[in-house]
């Protein structure tokens, strides 16, 4: 066993009915398991992207999964800019998707229509 593996007893996910939870995401109830992150609940519910505010307008959701990129931010119980990949879901959490417009950043060059992607 490598140092990165956890024994099953250390897994924070609690499968089964005892670990069941429900959160509201923009008013929609989503079921999850205690120990899952909010991103985990969203992904398990089939939501692969929940924001539409990248510079190029591409959908954003889970990118790094380790709390570095901030692509997954949501509002949780009124608290903005929570990284969904880092916050464990709690039964009854009220999650709102942040649909903010990007701020104007003067001095930056215009992006090409394809966001700079290579063809
Ligand atoms: S996915 Fe990168 S911070 Fe959450």
Describe the protein.
The chain is built from one helix and seven strands. With 119 residues, it is mainly beta. It has a domain at 19-97: Roll (Ubiquitin-like (UB roll)). The strands form two sheets. A five-stranded mixed β-sheet has the order 2-1-7-5-6, covered by helices on one side. A two-stranded antiparallel sheet has the order 3-4. A hairpin with an 8-residue loop joins strand 3 and strand 4. The longest helix is centred in the middle third of the chain and has 7 residues, at 38-44. The protein is globular, with a radius of gyration of 17 Å. The termini are far apart. Residues 62-65, 67-72, 83, 85 line the site of FE2/S2 (inorganic) cluster (FES). This is 2Fe-2S iron-sulfur cluster protein. Keywords: Oxidoreductase.
Quick structural gist:
Helix content is 6%, strand content 25%. With 119 residues, it is mainly beta.
Reconstruct the topology from this structure.
Elements: E1 20-25, E2 28-33, H1 38-44, E3 49-51, E4 60-61, E5 73-76, E6 79-83, E7 94-97
Parallel strand pairs: 1-7
Antiparallel strand pairs: 1-2, 3-4, 5-6, 5-7
The structure holds FE2/S2 (inorganic) cluster.
Residues 62-65, 67-72, 83, 85 line the site of FE2/S2 (inorganic) cluster.
